[in-house]
């Protein structure tokens, strides 16, 4: 609209998730009109982050070092391993404050139709990691989607020969969930997996 | 969370309008995990835009040149001037395709409590522009807010001595508006400004 570089900025902002043409325009105007310093800072942060952040060589989460904070930490329980699909899941679980073990990021889930088999998400490497004998329990925290479930089941099969306990995060009604609004599949799971109280 | 640079990127993304901590985190993860090339492109676009885009020396809209496309164009009616608060308004009116004249961007509205008087939004310069005699009608398209209205009224007063027709964009029920959901102030304006049909 105003100039080529303005249009290029609007276009570039559209790569952000859930930013459509209108929002991108509003963001571009906001940056140019009201916060140029912030825009320059954002450009710098983007360049720095893309240059220095890479996968942890042990767990495949994100880090700037050879090994991430969590893998390097001696305060975390090295016998407990939580397997997740992506670094976003590591973040979510860390923010819940409910886990003090280590992680393993698959970087996806099994999806044969898309050509994603066990090798593509590094399952042989995970099995290797489990064979080293230090880990006694694996919590399978892949998503509660069809692919996440299939990946969890596959992992149980693939580690049958190892003396490692495999658990799956609980599925049921979310906290604060009103039964009236919970989908029937979740509800049937919740009834099936009911827990004894007395 | 993962590293300092990751946190800095999340922080930097929060300067974008309506991006809270959760969205910023999601954006940062998306960029780092799925679109590094896009992130580098966005950084480049931000640097380019902040370096080259500035105010048009005539209308104060945005341009990369001395004078913006619209001011430089010979196809636009130089007798008609639309006064708006910001370049975003120029964009909105251009996108409506309803105006073929030139623009004047005030860069704000009168707001005595915030110390923004006529000088701060360049009203003397606008009056000067109108005194040059080329312009026959000024369409006041400041926002339909209290400040926008006050600014429009002030402009009418400030240009009383000039032989220029001053008009205000119409206010009433928006297209597709159902009366039931239109606020009463708008409705009373719409009744007051009713238009004769026969």
Automatic annotation (TrEMBL), chains A, B:
One example GO MF annotation: DNA binding
Zinc finger (C4-type): 56-71
Keyword Zinc: yes
Coiled-coil residue windows: none
CDD domains to which the protein is assigned, alphabetical: TOPRIM_recR
Keywords recorded for this protein, A-Z: DNA damage, DNA recombination, DNA repair, Metal-binding, Zinc, Zinc-finger
Keyword match RNA-binding: no
Toprim domain span: 79-174
InterPro entries: DNA_Rcmb_RecR, Rcmb_RecR, Rcmb_RecR_Znf, TOPRIM_dom, TOPRIM_RecR
Gene Ontology biological-process annotations: DNA recombination; DNA repair
Signal peptide coordinates: none
PROSITE patterns given in the database record: RECR (PS01300), TOPRIM (PS50880)
Functional note: May play a role in DNA repair. It seems to be involved in an RecBC-independent recombinational process of DNA repair. It may act with RecF and RecO.
Stated family: Belongs to the RecR family.
NCBIfam families assigned to the protein according to its UniProt record, in alphabetical order: recR
Protein name per the record: Recombination protein RecR
Gene giving rise to this polypeptide: recR
């Amino acid at each position: 609209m105003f100039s080529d570089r303005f249009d290029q900025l609007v276009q570039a902002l559209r790569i952000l998730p859930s930013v459509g043409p209108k929002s991108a325009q509003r963001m571009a105007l906001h940056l140019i009109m009201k916060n140029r310093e912030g825009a320059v800072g954002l450009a710098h942060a983007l360049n720095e982050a893309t240059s220095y952040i890479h996968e942890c060589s042990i767990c495949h989460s994100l880090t700037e070092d050879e090994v991430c904070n969590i893998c390097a930490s001696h305060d975390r329980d090295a016998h407990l391993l939580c397997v997740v699909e992506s670094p976003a899941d590591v973040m979510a679980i860390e923010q819940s404050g409910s886990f003090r073990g280590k992680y393993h990021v698959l970087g996806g889930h099994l999806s044969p139709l898309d050509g994603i088999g066990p090798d593509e998400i590094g399952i042989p490497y995970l099995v290797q990691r489990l064979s080293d004998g230090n880990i006694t329990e694996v919590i399978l925290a892949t998503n509660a989607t069809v692919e996440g479930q299939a990946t969890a089941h596959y992992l149980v099969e693939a580690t049958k020969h190892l003396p490692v306990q495999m658990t799956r995060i609980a599925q049921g009604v979310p906290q604060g969930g009103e039964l009236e609004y919970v989908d029937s599949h979740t509800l049937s799971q919740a009834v099936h997996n009911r827990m004894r109280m007395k």
